[in-house]
């Protein structure tokens, strides 16, 4: 049996044993891999990670993977991280920790996968996020109608509890937290979607790839996990959208720095 | 299989010899019993070698029959004191012989009689009652508590659906009403362009499809509905009304949605959290139940087993049979419907609880699961032992949800305690509880034969399960006590008489009987005055418990 982390330093703030819900991480890139790491360190073990990609050397700068992981699937890199963090063999990872080397689509969800719990949508395109979102909302609608009418539909046990979606630029990012049963919240989130095929809407590096800064990803990912913690511990005041800007703009020299 | 040392036929011979010895001994003891009749208290006193037994027969009993039965009972008591009870752990029976393959017996021996004394409390020896495994499912309890935190409006309608779907029925009514108006107008045009000689046939064709006033309008036969002014036709007015209703409902839905959609979404999310929380396994130590419950004052016996629904020993369901005595049911209504709130004692009885692994519990009446002094089978044993125990299972009323909650949490001792409390009361304001007077000795026939009564109760507990504790002397004494109580109460106390008038539960003064106007809150009748002054018409609760949001002090 896998050893569980000693979480005495934060157990009084967040105890995962009191919230035994599944967590689904769809996309294990810059944000997704760091969310996975943060959840492991919190002591959460009921985690499912979905990603179809393979680790490349340029991923090492902004994702949690190690040089030895290059060439492996990203979900394998996550498993290796968990193994190293928990100090166990891969075979002895908690049975509730699952890794899926595949792309999650609306059809995949409609087949009955990604059941219940908190879902982090961290895929690389707006189109895929919307497709996943729509499929999860359909499941929530069916469960909701059954809850009110008492007949038919998918049981509440399979409906998503909470959707967390993040977007990231080089120096800024946004975290969206959506109650899947709230139509107004859904509409508000849908209105935030942009056309990411339009180059005016995305940041590109000189070589044409999207910009991704590890420290930015780390901040966004950990704030997203904090949103999940707040939902479980104190949902009042949970903000549906949080925008963060990180670019330092120090223009006034501090006398202390000059003296040093 | 153990070695067959003696052979089957030899063993049968041994058995027959033992039976003969027993019969001879019984006849000898019967001849030594002396019986005296106490005419003052109408009781028989039997004695045998210093052992005394007192019997109070029912008034109609036959003297010869009574004396015979008293002798038999006393001899049985004497023999039980001298001999140990049959071991219950073997599978050896009288009907078919089986070798016991368990650890308690390795040879097929006939149990030997000894003269060692045995205690009156019978317990299954050398047995540890099993542990029953169930899943503690608190979901329904939590959801029920959660519903109390939200306004009732969010449970009446699904605010997640679009307005046009929510008002679909109203839109259909509008469509149908407008169709009727157009049908009338089309008929008018057709009639206007038709030769007058064909109007009779035309009217015959239209009559099955149109109403009388529409026909009169089309064929200009009603001076109050002049052609050209369709606003005088009821069909048109109905259409206007349905349009008005639709618009009103659409606006109201939009308002309600704005007010309650957020709360409903929040409620749904919390329900999903409850439904997705894993169930917790619970182990129920039935040995502890045996040891604790058997010590209770009102318990004369208890037996437990885990078996399937066919009675085969397995781990599928937990069955607990509890024998109760000296239960006095008291009036629980704030205002009794009787002329006085009578305390009515029940004869000793037993009931059976069945617990499923998912926490669901049942207390079936049929199939011999409940036995006590019957109302409808005078003097005999049946399941109708209590005013709320008449149908296939007891009507627990306000107790019901509490019992369900105890069962899903695996709190069996608390559940048994609660059931004893349930049997210890009746509610004369309830449609079933109002019949409690039928169990008063003034209306109920006493035990026809206390010996038979004892034997049936006793054997039903002893033979029910391999794990049991039965206090025979306690049961016997309880039966005798009830017999005395029945006789004395019948002679000295009138049965409570039902007063068919109801009074307001709030003020206690206003008459709220069936022929008056009244409101109902938590199964209690409230007069209109108290309702208007102290209750909320929306949530139907007292103003102190109101959960609605009111802008003013109006309730």
The main pleated sheet of chain A reads as: 7 strands, mixed
String of helices and strands of chain A? EHEHEHEHEEHHEH
Classify the secondary structure makeup of chain B into a structural class. Answer: alpha+beta
Q: Residue share in helices of chain A?
A: 25-40%
As residue ranges, the low-confidence spans of chain A are none
Query: How many helices of chain B?
Result: 14
How many helical elements of chain A? Answer: 7
Radius of gyration of chain B: 36 Å
The tally of strands of chain B reads 18
Estimate the mean pLDDT confidence of chain A: 87
Helix content of chain B: 25-40%
Number of E-type strands of chain A: 7
Low-confidence stretches of chain B: 84-119
* DSSP strand content of chain B: 5-15%
Which structural class matches the secondary elements of chain A?
Answer: alpha/beta
Strand order of the largest sheet of chain B: 4-16-7-8-11-12
Terminal Cα separation of chain B, in Å?
Answer: 79 Å
Overall 3D form of chain B: elongated
Largest interface: A-B, 27 and 20 residues
Walkthrough of the structure:
The complex is a heterodimer of chains A (260) and B (555). Chain A is built from seven helices and seven strands. With 260 residues, chain A is α/β, with parallel strands linked by helices. In chain A, helix 1 packs parallel to helix 2 and helix 1 (30-42) packs across helix 6 (214-233). Chain A is globular and about 55 Å long. Chain A starts with 22 loop residues before the first strand and ends with a helix. Chain B has 555 residues and is α+β, with helices and mostly antiparallel strands. Chain B has 14 helices and 18 strands. Chain B has helices at residues 8-31, 63-82, 139-147, 163-166, 168-192, 199-206, 212-218, 234-276, 286-293, 400-408, 412-423, 450-462, 472-492, 528-534; strands at residues 34-38, 43-48, 51-55, 121-123, 131-136, 280-285, 299-307, 317-324, 328-331, 344-345, 349-355, 361-362, 372-373, 381-382, 425-426, 467-471, 519-521, 524-526. A six-stranded antiparallel beta sheet of chain B has the order 4-16-7-8-11-12, sandwiched between helices. In chain B, helix 3 crosses helix 8 (234-276), helix 5 packs antiparallel against helix 8 (234-276) and helix 12 (450-462) packs antiparallel against helix 13. The longest helix of chain B has 43 residues, at 234-276. Classes of the chains: A alpha/beta (260), B alpha+beta (555). Chains A and B meet through helix 4 and helix 5 of A and helix 8 of B.
